[in-house]
Amino acid sequence: MDPKRINSPPRPVDVSVLVPVLDESRHLEEAMAAMCAQRFDGEIEFLLIDGGSTDGTPAIAAELAGRDPRIRLLSNPDRYTPQALNIGLRAARGAYIARMDAHAVYPPNYLQAGVDRLRRGHVDWVSGPQVAVGTGRWSRTVALALSTPLGVGSARFRSPGTAEIELDSNGFCGVWRRSTLEAHDGWAEGWPINQDAELAARMREAGELIVCLPEMAATYLPRESARSLARQYWRYGQYRAKTSLRHPRSLRRSHLIPPSLVLALLAAGGSSRVRRPARGALVAYGAALAVTGSRSRRRSGPGEARLLPAALATMHLTWGLGFLVGLVRFARPGGGA
Predict the structure, then answer these.
(1) How confident is the model at residue 297 (pLDDT cuts 50, 70, 90)?
(2) Is pLDDT of 53 > 80?
(3) Nearest-CA neighbor of 268 among 256, 255, 282, 254?
């Protein structure tokens, strides 16, 4: 990493793109190629903020920076995503700030569409849909799950859509005015997971508007094993609980369904008073999984349709258990990140 590049004299640009990276060697070149191909009528800089990668990511990032002077390299010794974003925000030279993830691919008009919408006014955070596209059988199954109502839940940004919609929570990545993020002191560093939802809760409490534009849809690769999916949703659930404890108005009815399923599963073996309704709820859930799997056969391979109930159950139950654990973990005094 070249210190002269990191400490280069400040020169204003229009948009600073913050890209936290940690062990992203498999996807970094493809993701950065799409980012650097952005069609934008102004100056862009890309800040790659590395959290101590050990898989060759730093070498790839240095090579990319050597080829494109718009790329700057920064270090994130704390490793976590919100710390990386705040490091990037402090180093950024743009009037607008965009967040892009190294494991996603963004359309070439992503930045232009976001900045244009902010310039038209009356909105404070512009994002696009997050569209899952799988490669292997399991990741294709997860992508299929995230195209169903049972998989999406209240996360409206996971559906492509055809028109601008207002979001009652966060979008996927997005574009902000720099002044908006600075007014909120950036991302909360106690949220290594769910930091965008926590930021969205603060912005909504301040009366600010978050929208999702279909033309800003980005694709990403879901987890490629049941174990990694379970770990992902276990962590999501915990930090959704932490966000809900800090910002109660951000809690949605749909957030209560997965933990209710976990409680029903536990109650199904309990006393007769709770056993019958619990088992009834589980039967209804199983039927919903079966119907969703059957309907999905029309637009997927038979293998993915067969695995779909297992993927959905993994997502729901690990998220729900994580949420319950998070309520205990973060409600107690001194509950940490």
Answers:
(1) confident
(2) yes
(3) 282
Do the beta carbons of residue 220 and residue 132 sit within 8 Å?
A: yes
Distance, in Å, from the CA atom of 53 to the CA atom of 66, rounded to the nearest integer, reads 19
pLDDT at 156 (0 to 100): 66
CA dist 185 and 168 (Å) reads: 21
CA 277 to mean position of chain CA atoms: 35
235-271 in b/e form (b: 16+ CB < 10 A) is bbbbbbbbbbbebeebeeeebebbbbbbbbbebbeee
- Contact yes or no for 306/224 (Cβ under 8 A): no
Per residue in 47-77, is it b (16+ CB within 10 Å) or e — as a string?
bbbbbebeeebbebbbebbeeeeebbbbebe
Q: CA-to-CA distance for 172 and 157, rounded, in angstroms? A: 7
Token pair 């209560």 in the structure block, residue: 256
Residues 172-187 have pLDDT tens digits of: 999 999 999 999 999 9
Q: Is residue 310's pLDDT more than 90? A: yes
Half-sphere exposure of residue 259, counting CA atoms within 13 Å on the CB side? 18
Cα–Cα distance for residue pair 71/79, rounded to 1 Å: 20
CA distances from residue 8 to 17, 88, 93, 97, 224 in whole angstroms, order as listed: 17, 14, 11, 19, 39
- Compute the distance between CA of residue 152 and CA of residue 73 in angstroms, rounded to an integer: 35
The token duo for 86 is: 């705040």
Among 100, 81, 321, CA closest to 191: 81
Q: CA–CA separation, 337 vs 83, rounded Å? A: 13
Instruction: Identify whether the C-beta of residue 122 lies closer than 8 Å to the C-beta of residue 208.
Output: no
